[in-house]
Write a sequence for this structure.
């Protein structure tokens, strides 16, 4: 189990950096002024230089991705209900996400910014969860159908 946590966390850390860089590229393309925005301009002001801001964001992205990667093992706990898995995963991931979003200035630092952040986070989380739920349900239905067909041929 511990080895799985390390492996998932390592893969998650790499994905965290990759996703953060991908988001920076998309934002830069959307702004369309020919400049690459590696970090939020306010983050450069917070840390005094673009290089320091990029290094900090990369480090935070590693930790952020590692938290999500490690948390993915929650879904493999067969002794837990889907409700317990969901609530535990949601709590761990939101505890990892909120301070990162705040520190990296991915959200406004006022009441509306925090409320908007949580609204968007819960909407995105819920959407992904529902998609995964229905995909898994469909797989289970296919497995059950194959098992019924197999039993029908054996009997």
């Amino acid at each position: 189990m511990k080895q799985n946590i390390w492996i998932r966390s390592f893969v998650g850390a790499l994905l965290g950096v990759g996703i953060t860089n991908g988001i920076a590229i998309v934002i830069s393309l959307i702004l369309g002024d020919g400049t690459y925005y590696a970090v939020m301009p306010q983050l450069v002001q917070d840390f005094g230089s673009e290089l320091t801001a990029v290094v900090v964001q990369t480090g935070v992205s590693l930790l952020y991705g590692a938290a999500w990667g490690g948390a993915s093992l929650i879904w493999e706990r067969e002794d837990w209900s889907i409700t317990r898995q969901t609530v535990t995963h949601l709590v761990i991931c939101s505890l990892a996400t909120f301070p990162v979003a705040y520190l990296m200035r991915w959200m406004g630092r006022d009441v509306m910014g925090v409320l908007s952040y949580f609204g968007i986070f819960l909407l995105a989380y819920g959407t992904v969860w529902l998609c995964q739920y229905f995909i898994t349900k469909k797989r289970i239905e296919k497995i059950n159908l194959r098992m019924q067909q197999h039993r029908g041929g054996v009997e």
